[in-house]
Design goal:
Rossmann fold; about 625 residues; mainly alpha; about 70% helix
Length: about 625
């Protein structure tokens, strides 16, 4: 960033263009991605020319590329072993076949065009990768990411992101050995040495991620300084990016590997929550920079050739995707969404094409044309999804986006979120686990998180009152949130956040005392539980047994007391701030309870009570 003034002027133009164009694009139904790309074209050198040449905005473009780095890190955070295992069929079968067949088909098309076999092979497999950034953003905006087609597209994109690793390792083997791009400290080194550096760098990230990073985050979490956690998250991503750049690798690839390593960390959701705001704005800048960097002069000089190359990419890659949708027996709507989502080239192509050019695999002229082809194909993606949304979906009906046999899978994939895993939440969580439910558990005490994870519970560190953390934990798709936090203010903030942003969530809430319970009822929360009532009633039932009451009678008395207490809380809630009315009603409820027991003394009837006595002896006094 040699000229700070130029950098800030460019940043001003980029952000202003985005603020103006994206809302307009959204209002027109075009989606934010197309709005960002259009903004970039408008301010670029071939339209208004507000950002000057590439050298003037190079620093800002590096900042924008950091958005892809952050996005790949966060995608890696989602790749826990159980998730990968459940997706193994789509990930390996569908994703692997897509990359292999698309790469070979595009390479064959390039050779038929007259390109050498090495350049054809490199270009074919580079173009076989699709745009994770554009596809995921567009699918989420159109609420298509949860459909079968959206999930198959996501699985394929994951495999493509992983496939970048061997591509980066093998590219030097196709090169001439003259690396003019200057790849870190390995510039000019033989291809086999750079391939070895790939393995060493990735292994180093894995080792440090497993051993050092969890201890660092644990130390920061215990300090209680939330801003330091955000700083540490950014430090981690930037450090990995710098390491990968030094050894000549893609920083986005390194961030992806780092995210995969930390996918099982208890700090995963906190990391996602801290990085989400940075990812959104930086990805937007990345899309604007793509639009601004499009060399449209090549389109004017070689219009037919560029158009033919874009058409060949769309037809060949789209044909492979359509074939795979038939082989894997997708329905017509699922196959259409899968094909229209992934026919384009991706953001990794810009990185891989630059490396291929620097290594002598691709010449400068072909690299420039392919960069334009990649950008144009990315621009076509939001338009293709609009075609699907407005022309294809109505033919099958709105409900066809989720096939009947898949609907249950989508529904059951929604998690239960349990906030707080202390004395109260521990019992709730263990009961849910005993019945086969595995909630996402969030806890703010770092030491307690580490202890409970050693005991076998998958507890995550994080402050659930933060909206971005709830989003990272899956609140948008969850069916139930159990709020078992101990602090009354935290409980109230969580109830407000969940009610406002996730109205589909059913809430089960712990209340700190009768007044808090009534206040929660007044706020519309239906399922509220006094933190002491359950154990207190159990203790009362045990006391009655020790005083000679049969077990069944004691248990029945406790249950009747619980029902009476629940009814009283609901009736008292509207008048809790009217002292005279509240006092009179409490006296009335107490008298009603005593009269109720006098009218029905709960004496046992029949022989069934003996079974309760035996069961009580087995369980011990509760």
């Amino acid at each position: 960033m040699d000229d700070p003034t130029a950098f800030f002027e460019s940043a001003l133009v980029y952000l202003a263009a985005a603020v103006v164009s994206v809302p307009v694009a959204k209002r027109l139904g075009l989606g934010s991605v197309l709005g960002y790309l259009a903004a970039g074209v408008a301010i670029g050198p071939f339209a208004l020319n507000l950002v000057g040449d590439a050298g003037k905005t190079g620093g800002l473009m590096h900042v924008a590329e950091f958005g892809v780095v952050v996005m790949l890190f966060m995608i890696g955070l989602e790749l826990r072993v159980p998730v990968l295992w459940r997706m193994r069929g789509s990930l390996l079968g569908l994703g692997g076949m897509q990359v292999l067949l698309s790469g070979l088909a595009l390479a064959g098309a390039a050779m038929a065009w007259g390109v050498g076999w090495k350049a054809s092979l490199a270009a074919g497999f580079i173009l076989s990768l699709s745009s994770t950034a554009i596809v995921l953003q567009s699918l989420r905006e159109k609420s298509l990411h949860g459909t079968p087609g959206g999930r198959h597209a996501f699985a394929t994109l994951l495999f493509q992101d992983i496939a970048v690793i061997p591509m980066l390792a093998l590219l030097p083997l196709l090169g001439t050995g003259n690396d003019s791009a200057g790849h870190g400290g390995l510039s000019g080194q033989p291809g086999w040495l750079r391939a070895l550096a790939v393995v060493a760098a990735v292994s180093g990230v894995v080792f440090l991620g497993r051993w050092l990073v969890p201890r660092l985050f644990g130390f920061i979490a215990r300090s209680g300084l939330r801003e330091m956690f955000t700083a540490a998250a950014l430090l981690l991503v930037i450090a990995i990016a710098v390491l990968m750049t030094r050894v000549g690798l893609s920083p986005a690839l390194g961030a992806f590997v780092g995210g995969v390593v930390l996918a099982g960390s208890p700090y995963r959701h906190e990391l996602e929550g801290d990085l989400e705001p940075f990812k959104g704005i930086l990805l937007g800048l990345f899309f604007v920079s793509i639009g601004a960097a499009m060399d449209l002069s090549l389109l004017l000089v070689y219009p037919m050739e560029v158009a033919a190359m874009v058409g060949a990419l769309v037809l060949v890659k789209g044909g492979v995707l359509a074939l795979l949708s038939r082989v894997f027996r997708f329905g017509p709507d699922t196959g259409a969404l899968y094909t229209l989502s992934l026919f384009q080239a991706g953001e990794f192509a810009f990185v891989l094409l630059g490396q291929a050019n620097g290594m002598g695999v691709l010449n400068q002229s072909l690299t420039g044309k392919l960069n334009l082809v990649v950008a144009l194909s990315m621009v076509l993606t939001p338009l293709a999804l609009l075609v699907y949304q407005f022309l294809w979906m109505p033919r099958f009906g709105k409900s066809s986006a989720i096939a009947p046999r898949e609907a249950d899978k989508v529904d059951h994939a929604s998690p239960v979120i349990l906030v707080g895993f202390g004395r109260f939440g521990n019992y709730v969580g263990r009961l849910l686990r005993s019945q086969g439910h595995r909630p996402v558990i969030l806890e703010t005490d770092a030491e307690h998180v580490e202890l409970t994870r050693r005991l076998g519970f998958e507890v995550h560190y994080g402050d659930a009152t933060r909206l971005e953390l709830l989003e990272a934990a899956g609140a948008a798709n969850a069916k139930l949130m159990i709020i078992a936090a101990g602090d009354e203010e935290t409980i109230d903030r969580l109830v407000e956040t969940a009610t406002r942003h996730y109205p589909q969530l059913k809430l089960v809430v712990r209340a700190n005392g009768m007044n808090h319970r009534m206040a929660l009822y007044n706020r519309g929360v239906e399922h509220v539980f006094h933190e002491m009532s359950g154990s207190a009633l159990d203790a009362g039932a045990a006391s009655l047994r020790l005083l000679g009451l049969p077990a069944f009678t004691a248990e029945r008395a406790a249950r009747r007391m619980a029902r009476h207490d629940l009814q009283s809380a609901r009736e008292l809630a509207p008048v809790m701030h009217d002292e005279s009315a509240y006092t009179a009603m409490v006296r009335e409820r107490v008298a009603n309870l005593e009269n109720l027991f006098r009218m029905d003394p709960l004496h046992p009837h029949g022989e069934d009570d003996h079974a309760w006595e035996v069961d009580a002896k087995r369980r011990g006094d509760r």
